[in-house]
Amino acid sequence: MRPQSIQIPGLTLLNNLAPHAIAATSEGGFISAAAPQSKVAAPAMPRRKENKKTKARRALAEAQAVAGRNGHAHNNPARQELTGPRLYRPPNTSNVSNNGITARATPSGPRILTRDSPRDERVAPSEASGGIPDPSPLYMAQSSTLPCSLRQPRRIFVIIDLNGTLLYRPNKRQPFNFIQRPHARQFLDYCIDTFHVAIWSSARAENVDKMVSQLLSPQQRARCVVIWARDKFNLSPADYSARVQCYKRLTSIWNDPSVMASHPAAAHGQRWDQTNTVLVDDSAEKGRSEPYNILQLPEFEGPKAEPPDVLPQVHDYLNLLCHQANISSYIRHHPFKINANYRLTPPPGVHTR
Ligand SMILES: [Mg+2]
Question: Residue 160: which H helix or E strand, with range?
Answer without folding.
Answer: strand 157-160
